[in-house]
Amino acid sequence: MAENELFFVIPTYRLRDVGETVEHYDEHFWRNGHSVRMILFDDSSPVNQEKYYPLLEQTATHNELYYVGPRHKEQFLAYLNGRLRGKRLDGLVKNLFRPSYGGNRNYTLMYTLGGFMVSADDDMRPYTLMEHSPESLNPDEVCRGRLHRAGQNGYSRKSFDILTSFLDVLGKPAGQVPDNYERGELLVDTSMDLETNATHGLARENSLVLQRGVLADASLTM
Predict the structure, then answer these.
(1) d(CA 68, CA 42)
(2) From first to last of its 222 residues, what are the pLDDT tens digits of the chain?
């Protein structure tokens, strides 16, 4: 693995539908002039993997696409447990890399050590829905969203070069982040606990709010 190599990662357990997600992001990167290694981390059951993997094989991409599935994960865990040489740690390792939001991220982090990793959920898309008449944001409010009925007028689909936005800050000391980027300690979602990936219930509006904080070291890497 080359140092600081960029990876785009999609964790999934919905192998039947993830090919569409891959195609959307691949086309987006290609259209914006990016060549990036894409890795799909599949936490499906062995039965679903065998059933739906042929669908993924039919997915054509401009960028390199790699697949890490259940069998690869088992091999990785066996290697890790062998290196630890402690049976009592097997349960801890299994829990750290369990098929869940946190488990997927731990797994992808291990596979991309030494590189830069940008990740998207398997039900995300590289575009946003923007209202035709957006309201002004409050102080420290990064963005605001609200529920719209499907087919309802009043918004348009917009696409932006997302990888360039990440490349502006990835691996750079905080002091070198461009001035048009806000600095803070934490992003807070008013309708979700981002730490536990748990929603606070149905909300018709939600905002991302930047929580200010003091950087202890100006050379802290983003």
Answers:
(1) 6
(2) 566 889 999 999 899 999 999 999 999 999 999 999 999 999 988 899 999 999 999 999 999 999 999 999 999 999 999 999 888 899 999 888 888 765 678 889 999 998 999 999 999 999 988 888 878 899 999 989 888 887 778 888 899 999 999 999 888 887 788 888 888 888 899 998 877 777 888 888 899 999 887 766 555 554
Residue 12 CA to chain centroid, in angstroms?
A: 11
Q: Is the dihedral of CA 44, 48, 54, 59 positive or negative?
A: negative
Reported in sequence order, the residue ranges of the chain that DSSP labels E, i.e. its strands, are 6-12, 37-42, 65-68, 116-119, 128-131, 141-146, 155-158, 186-189, 192-193, 198-199, 205-211
Query: pTM above the 0.70 mark?
Result: yes
Q: How far apart are CA 19 and CA 25, in angstroms?
A: 10
Contacts of 27 (CB under 8 A, 6+ apart): 62
What's the longest Cα–Cα distance across the chain? 60
Evaluate whether 207 touches 163 at the Cβ level (below 8 Å).
no
The two tokens of residue 76 are: 């990785």
